[in-house]
């Protein structure tokens, strides 16, 4: 842990797109950043807005190499969460707070069992278009927002990143915010991934209509889960999708193109499992989940 006159020590678990961007922008703002990863890395570079950043980061490949941090940012893909358990045990000391910067709607339930008792957990939603094009090589397309719940932890998180290019927004109803974020993924991610197409496909009228139907199913499920959402939120998510440049992609598409396992169980799967709990029929999302599972099996086998 730091002394009072030294910068906060941040440990970022995961050197993918979100982790790399978070580490780079936090270090640029003067914070003390260690990037925790599975394979050795000599350097992280990130292209953003016509410039290339080479942040002065520390790299660690073993939990025992890093002392407890002031803040831990968990940025792994959701399916890799349990693999970060060793890091979380070593990095969490008295006073450590863990920001869970992942997709999905169940941050607390997913990560709480992996933390030492009493560790503060702050769920966070990442609104950023960023792509890992090679190990240690990140391309930032646009946006770098993190949405967290209102409250003392959220305020400290915002203060921590004040002055960086990471914009923190606190929200009063995080359950609703999490489902709204999921809406930006629940149609675009499966469609681009299954078809291996970029975001331009949503400009096709038939594909646009299909995305609307997929999202309507998601809205019904989210409302049953207690989120304050409507069809207007689905339309808002789809507008965000279609505002992406035609050659842009989704995180799930990038994973498929790179041969990595998919995050489908925590996006489409989250909708299907919640629908089952409430007896809601979601045939389109169930079909997408079946197809994504088949794609994922092939990726894992390959």
UniProtKB/TrEMBL annotation:
The keyword Zinc does not apply. The keyword NADP applies. Its EC number is 1.1.1.169. InterPro entries: 6-PGluconate_DH-like_C_sf, 6PGD_dom2, ApbA, KPA_reductase, KPR-Related, KPR_N, NAD(P)-bd_dom_sf. Pathway: Cofactor biosynthesis; (R)-pantothenate biosynthesis; (R)-pantoate from 3-methyl-2-oxobutanoate: step 2/2. It holds the Pfam family ApbA. It comes from the Bacteria. Residues 10-150 form the Ketopantoate reductase N-terminal domain. Keywords: NADP, Oxidoreductase, Pantothenate biosynthesis. Residues 173-295 form the Ketopantoate reductase C-terminal domain. It catalyses: (R)-pantoate + NADP(+) = 2-dehydropantoate + NADPH + H(+). Catalyzes the NADPH-dependent reduction of ketopantoate into pantoic acid. Belongs to the ketopantoate reductase family. This is 2-dehydropantoate 2-reductase. It comes from Streptomyces daqingensis.
């Amino acid at each position: 842990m730091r002394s009072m006159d030294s910068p906060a020590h941040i440990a970022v678990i995961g050197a993918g797109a979100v982790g790399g961007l978070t580490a780079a922008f936090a270090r640029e703002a003067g914070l003390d950043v260690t990037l925790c990863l599975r394979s050795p890395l000599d350097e992280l570079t990130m292209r953003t807005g016509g410039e290339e950043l080479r942040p002065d980061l520390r790299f660690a490949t073993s939990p025992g190499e890093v002392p407890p941090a002031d803040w831990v940012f968990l940025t792994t893909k959701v399916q890799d969460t349990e693999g970060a358990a060793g890091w979380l045990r070593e990095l969490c000391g008295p006073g450590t707070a863990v920001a869970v910067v992942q997709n999905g709607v169940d941050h607390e339930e997913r990560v709480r069992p992996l933390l030492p008792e009493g560790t503060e957990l702050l769920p966070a939603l990442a609104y950023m278009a960023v792509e890992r094009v090679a190990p240690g090589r990140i391309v930032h397309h646009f946006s770098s927002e993190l949405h967290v719940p209102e409250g003392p932890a959220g305020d400290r998180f915002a203060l921590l990143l004040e002055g960086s290019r990471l914009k923190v927004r606190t929200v009063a109803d995080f359950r609703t915010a999490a489902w709204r974020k999921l809406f930006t993924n629940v149609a675009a991610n499966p469609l681009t991934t299954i078809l291996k197409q970029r975001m331009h496909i949503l400009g096709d009228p038939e594909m646009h209509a299909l995305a609307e139907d997929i999202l309507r199913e998601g809205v019904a499920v989210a409302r049953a889960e207690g989120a304050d959402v409507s069809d207007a939120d689905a339309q808002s998510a789809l507008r965000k999708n279609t505002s992406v440049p035609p050659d842009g992609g989704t995180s799930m598409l990038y994973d498929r193109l790179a041969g990595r396992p998919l995050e489908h169980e925590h996006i489409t799967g989250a909708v299907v499992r919640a629908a089952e709990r409430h007896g809601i029929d979601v045939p389109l999302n169930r079909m997408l989940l079946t197809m994504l599972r088949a794609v994922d099996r092939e990726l894992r086998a390959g």
